[in-house]
Amino acid sequence: MVLAALLTLTALCYVLHQSLYGWDEKRRAQNLAEKIALNVHRQCRTTQDEISRAQEGRLHRIEEILKRAGALTLDDTSSEQWHLTDPRDGIETTLFLPRLLAGNEWLGKSAPGPLIDRIRTSCGGQIAVYQRINETGDLLRICSTTPQAARGALLPAKIGQGQTAPLIDQLLRGETVHRPGRSEGAWVLVSLVPLRHSESGEVVGALEIRTKSRPLEKLARRIMGLRAGHDGYVFVLGAHGEQRGRYIISRDGLRDGEDIWNSLDTAGRPFIQAIVLRSLALPQRAEKDDPAVVFERYPWQNPGERHPRHKKVAITYFEPWDWVIGAGYYEDEF
Length: 334
Fold this sequence. Notes:
This protein is 32% helix and 32% strand. The chain is α+β, with helices and mostly antiparallel strands.
């Protein structure tokens, strides 16, 4: 009888130890993923600050070049016909726009004129000019130094549910916007500079400058090198517009640019949509504070595995770049 009691007590102690130990391991794994997500967010902020400081001189040169070019106006006496396709629904439209002038130079020529050449010589990279086509803030590309960047491409102001794209919203407020981008496999900084009408002060267009960015290259490599457990990793998704639900940074960079918005977990749930939407619902905090983090748990079965495993992702949102940052791990590895 004593032996039976001892065996029962031993079994209870074992169960209690395993429960507490398992709980500690789960907390440790969750804390690790949260720390990784927060660290990536801080690195993004540091890289953003570095980029902004480096751009100050370039933006000052652009401002001086535009001033010397003369008044920025819309020539209502001369209009141009444009054919465009809305990327949101594929609808084709023909419209007539007044010419956007800098001094006497029309900025919508098929071959970039002297003003664009001066800006490119001063700043490097590739240059494009966009003209605002309506009150909503839709932008039409009217000139580009990149042959494959077609004139007539539309940059819509509105995204899902009638919301204004964060990038366009900032631009229409007269703010210069810097965002990471990709060009021919390389990381580039995309800067959008508002073009204001010389008389009304209204934003009537934008100047886009794309330059290769070593800080962004370094940041992407650091993110791709992070791991949580054996098979866990860090990823970045887009949250709005054309990049919504697309891999911006994937594991080892193998799926960068891939649209996974409609991906389903093994339970048939659109887990990527849940990750993006939960990130956008996070409360925004002061810049000096760490951002909010939320967790998403879902079952996932990789090719070659016999059974699904539960994966947990620490999620945060870097609003200046519209990046959803996720640090995921498999629970059975902890």
